[in-house]
Amino acid sequence: MPAVDHTEIFGLHDNAEITSAINITNEMLATALSLQGEAASSGDGKSQDDILREIATDLLGKIPKNFDIEAASKKHPIKYEDSLNTVLQ
């Protein structure tokens, strides 16, 4: 049994499924926004946007730099005997 029934089963148009998905998304986003709270500033005078910007900047600083794919391909060539290199490539 499929997890989601198609709209044709109920005699509905295909757009009914799209409309349903849009309505579910709107409800989910409205709930998320209602849980966010007011855009009040913190005790140290920073707005919520400033706090989020600091968190995003901190997370970006922790992401490792891109590695050289060509150098890695030369160092670890794809071979039939070495399946790990194949998976990593």
How is the topology of this model organized?
Layout: H1 14-36, H2 48-62, H3 69-75, H4 83-88
If you had to describe this structure to a student in words, what would you say it looks like?
The protein is mostly helical and about 90 residues long. It folds into 2 domains: about 1-35; about 40-89, no CATH class. It contains 4 helices and no strands. The radius of gyration is 24 Å and the shape is flat. The mean pLDDT is about 80.
Mean pLDDT: 82
**Uncertain stretches of 5 or more adjacent residues:** none
| Count of helical stretches | 4
- Radius of gyration from the alpha-carbon trace, in angstroms: 24 Å
List keywords for this structure.
89 residues; mainly alpha; 2 domains
Structure in a nutshell:
This protein has helices at 14-36, 48-62, 69-75, 83-88. It has four helices and no strands. It is mainly α and 89 residues long.
